[in-house]
Design goal:
Elements (H helix, E strand, L loop, with lengths): L2 H11 L3 H23 L2 H17 L11 H29 L14 H20 L2 H12 L4 H8 L3 H29 L1
Helix pairs in contact: 1-2, 2-3, 2-4, 3-4, 5-8, 6-7, 6-8, 7-8
Amino acid sequence: MTDSGTDLVGRCRQGDEAAWRELVTLHTRRVFGIAYRFVGRVDEAEDLTQDIFVKVFQSLDRYRESDGAFGTWVGTVARNHAIDNYRRRREERSRRIEDPAVLDVVPASDESPLRGLERAEQARIVHRGLRALPADLREPLVLCDLQGLSYEEAAATLQIPLGTVKSRINRGRLELARRLMGARRALESRR
């Protein structure tokens, strides 16, 4: 970082808003690039870029010139924050997909108690079938078919190509149907 860059950091630490805006302007492209590589969508990368700059501002006092160039330090903060964001999103996705409430079916008000029991049993069978699917097939299926996300939204959420989402949903539906047919045959043989 040049002397003027060192000066900018010092001025930021003293509360100079113009210096902060200049630092943000100098490093936005790099931070946005890091954010975009992690989220894959412009709107999410813009949000993550803002979050990263909040983190940079909050930890500005921790930067020391002996740590290296300020731009390198900002890049490290950006990567660490993007990784933390990715892990949080992955854990949230995992909790949503594993949540049995996703499969809860609300009975109609005029539904008989017997039909309610049948519906609950069907939901348990489908849930078991979904849990038995490999995660790579189950995740896009739950996101699109149960949570109503578009294929594009599922691709962004799972951070995989759109074509992969489509093929996994197709394979997942076929495998789930195969498992459900097997469960149905097993039930009918018990009757």
